[in-house]
């Protein structure tokens, strides 16, 4: 059985990326892009300057939003380049 080194655990990686741009895909396939300003042990995230996307198309702009961790399918860190392609 392989073990994850303490510095590479998913929550540690997420916490080290606070302040960076992230792309979040929820289980219902709605996507959010924004600057991650906070996260916790449940992978709940707080994003500022968030944008919502459905089917790759921008739907809404928000100020600060809270995303509950159990709704997240995956997170792409350092997503600034992806936003420029999508918008």
Question: Describe it for me?
Answer:
This protein has 87 residues and is an alpha+beta fold. The protein has one domain (6-79): SH3 type barrels (Roll), CATH 2.30.30. Helices cover 16% and strands 46% of the residues. It has two helices and six strands, in the order αββββββα. The protein has helices at 10-16, 80-86, and strands at residues 21-26, 31-39, 45-54, 57-61, 64-67, 72-77. A hairpin with a 4-residue loop joins strand 1 (21-26) and strand 2 (31-39). The chain is globular, with a radius of gyration of 13 Å.
Compact description:
This protein has 87 residues and is an alpha+beta fold.
* Domains (count): 1
Through-space gap between termini:
42 Å
The helicity comes to: 10-25%
Most strands sheet = 6 strands, antiparallel
CATH architecture, please? Roll
Instruction: Provide a count of the helices.
Output: 2
Rg calc = 13 Å
């Amino acid at each position: 059985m392989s073990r994850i080194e303490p510095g590479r655990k998913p929550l540690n990686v997420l916490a080290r990326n606070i302040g960076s741009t992230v792309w979040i895909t929820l289980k219902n396939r709605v996507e959010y892009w924004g600057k991650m300003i906070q996260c916790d042990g449940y992978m709940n995230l707080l994003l500022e300057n968030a944008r919502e996307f459905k089917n790759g198309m921008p739907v809404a702009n928000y100020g600060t939003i809270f995303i509950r961790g159990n709704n997240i399918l995956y997170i792409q860190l350092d997503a600034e380049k992806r936003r420029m392609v999508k918008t």
